[in-house]
Amino acid sequence: GQNIDQPTEMTATEGAIVQINCTYQTSGFNGLFWYQQHAGEAPTFLSYNVLDGLEEKGRFSSFLSRSKGYSYLLLKELQMKDSASYLCASSDSNYQLIWGAGTKLIIKP
Amino acid sequence: DTAVSQTPKYLVTQMGNDKSIKCEQNLGHDTMYWYKQDSKKFLKIMFSYNNKELIINETVPNRFSPKSPDKAHLNLHINSLELGDSAVYFCASSQGRAGASYNSPLHFGNGTRLTVT
What we know:
Oligomer: heterodimer
Largest interface: A-B, 22 and 22 residues
Distance between the termini of chain B: 34 Å
Structural class of chain A: mainly beta
Largest sheet of chain A: 6 strands, mixed
């Protein structure tokens, strides 16, 4: 079956660095997406990886290892506004997105 | 300007009623979706339309009927509402298939929180 696993909740300190992991098992693979969802709001697109390696975009970076079925989202210089849920989604052989339940990130001062 | 707008934002209704949620996008995208997000925060695809044609129809009760009058609109009608239908329903759009590439991320509306009592 198809499955996405990510931690339910993480806590980090303002100004620090946090890594949110995601493992995936999908029928075929056409890329890995990360979305951010603030409480009560819509998810918004953060990043996309289809090749192995690290993609950096400002304070946020996303890493992919296709052989391990593994990705992580790295958030640097954490700010209070980064408190949100982070959703991992894998694109399968039919380009359908398979979603994880999201990781709720709590930032403390 | 709101890119993907859906109405209403909140919907409280009783079991057995029929209700509709409307969605419009002004991004010029050719693909639109309905997603359901339950209390555990899983996003589940329900339907997808490409240029008014139904392309994804996941296993949902036939009480749910989507309708796309044109490629900028995708409405969702729900008959005989049940308690288990309570969730947040998100409309979304993308240019091409959402899972295809970096250039086709999903743009979500702000959601409709449906509560069935």
